[in-house]
Design a protein that fits this description.
3 helices; globular; Purple Acid Phosphatase, chain A, domain 2; alpha/beta
């Protein structure tokens, strides 16, 4: 199982296409999209709708619900790698105000990549932003049986790595 996690596309068609091409080339099983997507990026992602789990971001309006072929709740859940995964954009729900148990909390919104293992073993991860990073790395996140890796989509360099 291999999962790609992206966030904060902000309607950037070039980086959306780059992510889709990489998703197909690297044979990812699932694509998690953590909000702030945009109408044009939604249209590009729609053909992958059966493999997408997504959440709505603070810049995503209600008009996207009619365009997206995948659901856009404010919070979403999955279970992979024997881990309960919570997905949120980070504007409503974050690891600071989510009080239910989880193993991995995925959030976007900050445009900065982050991998943190808390004292209780919970992991908080942010893939950063593909289109408009604030940490200078146009990045995405890979989840597989080895752990979590944040990767710069332009250089293919691993920015952060964390084992489960």
């Amino acid at each position: 199982m291999k999962i790609m996690v992206i966030s904060d596309l902000h309607n950037d068609e070039n980086y959306t296409k780059a992510a889709i091409d990489l998703f197909k080339k690297e044979s990812f099983d699932k694509l998690f999209v953590l909000g702030d997507i945009g109408i044009d990026s939604i249209r590009l992602l729609n053909p992958l709708h059966e493999k997408i789990l997504a959440v709505k971001g603070n810049c995503d309006g209600y008009d996207l619900d009619d365009i997206a072929r995948f659901n856009l709740p404010y919070i979403n859940y999955d279970y992979d790698f024997s881990k309960f995964i919570v997905m949120s954009h980070g504007n409503f729900y974050s690891d600071f105000n989510y009080d239910k148990p989880y193993d991995i909390f995925l959030e976007g919104h900050t445009h900065m990549s982050l991998l943190v293992k808390k004292k209780n073993g919970q992991i908080v991860a942010n893939p950063g932003s593909l289109s408009d990073p604030r940490d200078y790395s146009h990045s995405y996140l890979v989840m597989d049986e080895k752990g979590l890796r944040v990767i710069d989509i332009n250089s293919n360099e691993v920015v952060h790595f964390l084992e489960y």
